[in-house]
Sequence to fold (270 residues):
Amino acid sequence: MGFSFLSWNIRKFKASPVRTKKIVDLIKKYNPDVFGILEFSDKDVARRLAFDYFKEYDFGITESKGVMEILVGHNRSKFDQSIFTQRREFNAGSIHLRPGAILSVRQKGQSSFDNLLFLHTDSGTRTTDYQNRQTMFKKIWGLNNGLKSLSIQKGKARLVVAGDLNTMGKSGTITATQEINKLTNDAANNEMKLLNKSHEKTWSASGNGRGDLDHVITSNDVKIQQWYFPSDSNTTFPIIVDGWVDLDNNARKEFVTNISDHSLLYGEIL
Fold:
C-alpha cells in the first residue's frame, strides 16, 4: 500500500534533448508513482516523455491562455482507478494565472481516493500578487472540506497539495516568513498541515538570492513517510528536496542556469 509523489517547477520546460535527459534522470532517481511538472510548455517534450521515457505512465495537462502549464503523470499499473481534473477556480479569476491540476487515484483494494493537487500560484510581492495567492490558498481549504463531504471519502479528504506556492510576502508590509507562518496557521485552522522539508530554501536566483517557495500541504488524515536528517537522528522530515541544494557553487550555478532554479519535492504516502 502507499505511493510516492514528486513535484518540480522546471522553469519554462521548453527543453533541448540534453536538458530533457537530465531532468528525466533526476525524476527517475526517485521513481515516483505520481509526478507533476510545473511550467511545462513544449508538446514535443510531452511526446518524448510519454513515448520514450515514461512509457508506463499516463499523462494529463492543464490548458489556459498564455501561461506555462502543469503536466501530471502517474504509473498506470499502480492504481485501480485514476481521474485527472483541471480546476479553473485556482486561477483566482484571471485567465493569465494557472488552473490547478488534480489527480485522484484509488489504490488497489481501497474504495476511497487519494487526491493530489499540483499548484503554481501567483508570483510577485505586489498587493495584487499577494491577494491572488491568498485567494488560491482559500480554494485549498474549500477543496479539503468538499472532499471530506463526499460519501466515497468516508469523512477523509486525503488531500496532498504540492507545488510552487510563491510565498514571497507583500512588498513593504509582509515578509516571506510572515506569509509562510500565515499559511501554516491557516492550514492548521482548516485541518491541514504545511510539511517541513529537508532543505528550507527551494529556489535559487542566478546570484545569491534564495527563497522558500515550494511546499507540500496535506490534510490531517494523510500519513506520510518520515526521513531522518543525516546530521540529526532525532529530527525527521517528510519531504525530500533535491536539485541544486546540495551542489557546490559552480555546479549549483550550472544547475540553476541549465536545468531549473527550483529544486524538486519528493514524498511517500503511507
